[in-house]
């Protein structure tokens, strides 16, 4: 029996990497019984609009783009009472979700095989205040502006190196934010260099959480907080703890929670799946337990 497949393509993602082998991927899907309809985005929000308007008509919705595009697709599918399964062709720069799921990156043919041969798994989606959803991370603080502050032409020309260069440029601007963070069963206050709620083992293609620390469909997200160290050598201890994946530094907190509420003494910039999340003095994040099934 043929399956109806909706493919939402972001042509700007990953320096146009989707063009390589896309025709072969479409043929492979067709041979596998998928009748594919293509939708191309031209501006931010298109993927959400397409998924919400037409997703219910298909058995599977495939996202071709980066993590930001996947975030938009999921936001659209969250508006449906019974979302179809989701496939992912990772064509972005960081591809954090693909790293977590061990999906082929910038490889349309390999991703098509995974859609045909993979298994749908429950996948949690994050809620970002009253403003929508996120696929894998919402964050504030050190280096979180890198993804959306890096010019698109640099992303296209330099790829992941563009993020590294932009991160180096932000070093003089790192500051701590005074906040109270409330989570399931507790709260913590202090000055924080970084904070996030995520559902991924990879953050910005650089920081990796251990696989046993993250379950993608358990209804809980990982709350990560980095305190401002008292002494200057505390920065080295934080970096060493992250790179070694020991996470045993007293200034690094990793907790599991269904929701988190952040209260700051001034508006703070947030990023949502690598895109600008706006300024917030108070923000509540939550985990929507497994509203979609992701094929991997």
How many strand elements?
A: 15
User: From the coordinates shown, what is the CATH architecture of the largest domain?
Assistant: Sandwich
Radius of gyration: 19 Å
**How many discrete structural domains?**
2
Instruction: Give the CATH class of the largest domain.
Output: Mainly Beta
**Secondary structural class:** alpha+beta
The first-to-last residue Cα distance is 21 Å
Regions with little confidence, pLDDT below 50 for 5+ residues = 154-169
Determine the number of helices (DSSP H or I, runs of at least 4 residues).
9
Shape: elongated
Approximately what portion of the residues adopt beta-strand conformation?
A: 35-45%
Q: Largest sheet at a glance?
A: 9 strands, antiparallel
Helical residue percent? 25-40%
Q: What is the succession of H and E elements?
A: EHEHEHEHHEEEHHHEEEEEHEEE
What is the secondary structure topology, with strand pairs?
Blueprint: E1 3-9, H1 22-31, E2 34-40, H2 46-54, E3 60-65, H3 67-77, E4 85-90, H4 96-101, H5 108-117, E5 120-128, E6 133-134, E7 137-141, H6 146-149, H7 152-158, H8 160-170, E8 177-183, E9 186-198, E10 202-203, E11 207-208, E12 221-227, H9 234-244, E13 252-257, E14 259-272, E15 275-295
Parallel strand pairs: 1-2, 1-3, 3-4
Antiparallel strand pairs: 5-6, 5-15, 7-9, 7-14, 8-9, 8-14, 9-12, 10-11, 12-13, 14-15
Describe the protein.
There is one protein chain. The protein is of the alpha+beta class. It has two domains: 3-118, 3-Layer(aba) Sandwich (Rossmann fold); 133-288, Tumour Suppressor Smad4 (Sandwich), CATH 2.60.200.40. The protein has helices at 22-31, 46-54, 67-77, 96-101, 108-117, 146-149, 152-158, 160-170, 234-244, and strands spanning 3-9, 34-40, 60-65, 85-90, 120-128, 133-134, 137-141, 177-183, 186-198, 202-203, 207-208, 221-227, 252-257, 259-272, 275-295. The strands form three sheets. Strands 5, 6, 7, 8, 9, 12, 13, 14 and 15 form a nine-stranded antiparallel beta sheet that branches. A four-stranded parallel beta sheet has the order 2-1-3-4, with helices on both faces. Strand 14 (259-272) and strand 15 (275-295) form a beta hairpin. Helix 1 runs parallel beside helix 5 (108-117), helix 2 packs parallel to helix 3 (67-77) and helix 7 (152-158) packs across helix 8 (160-170). The radius of gyration is 19 Å and the shape is elongated. It starts with a strand and ends with a strand.
């Amino acid at each position: 029996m043929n399956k109806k497949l909706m493919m939402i393509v972001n042509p700007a993602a990953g320096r146009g990497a989707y063009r390589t082998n896309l025709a072969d991927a479409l043929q492979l899907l067709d041979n596998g019984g998928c009748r594919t309809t293509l939708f191309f985005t031209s501006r931010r929000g298109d993927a959400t609009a397409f998924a919400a308007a037409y997703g219910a008509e298909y058995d599977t919705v495939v996202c071709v783009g980066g993590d930001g595009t996947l975030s938009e697709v999921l936001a659209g599918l969250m508006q449906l009472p019974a979302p179809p399964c989701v496939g992912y062709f990772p064509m972005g720069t960081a591809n954090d979700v693909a790293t977590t799921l061990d999906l082929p990156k910038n490889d349309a043919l390999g991703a098509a095989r995974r859609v045909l041969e993979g298994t749908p798994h429950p996948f949690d989606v994050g809620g970002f205040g009253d403003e929508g959803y996120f696929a894998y991370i919402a964050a504030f603080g050190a280096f979180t502006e890198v993804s959306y502050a890096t010019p698109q032409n640099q992303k296209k020309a330099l790829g992941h190196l563009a993020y590294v260069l932009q991160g180096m440029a932000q070093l003089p601007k790192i500051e701590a934010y005074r906040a109270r963070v409330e989570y399931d069963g507790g709260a913590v206050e202090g000055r924080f260099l970084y904070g996030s709620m995520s559902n991924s083992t990879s953050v910005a293609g650089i920081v990796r959480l251990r696989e046993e620390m993250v379950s993608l469909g358990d209804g809980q997200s990982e709350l990560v907080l980095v305190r401002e160290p008292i002494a200057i050598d505390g920065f080295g201890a934080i970096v060493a703890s992250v790179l070694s994946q020991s996470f045993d530094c007293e200034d690094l907190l990793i907790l599991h929670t269904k929701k988190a509420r952040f209260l700051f003494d001034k508006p703070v910039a947030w990023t949502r799946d690598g895109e600008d999340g706006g300024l917030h003095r108070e923000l509540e994040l939550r985990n929507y337990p497994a509203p979609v099934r992701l094929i991997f």
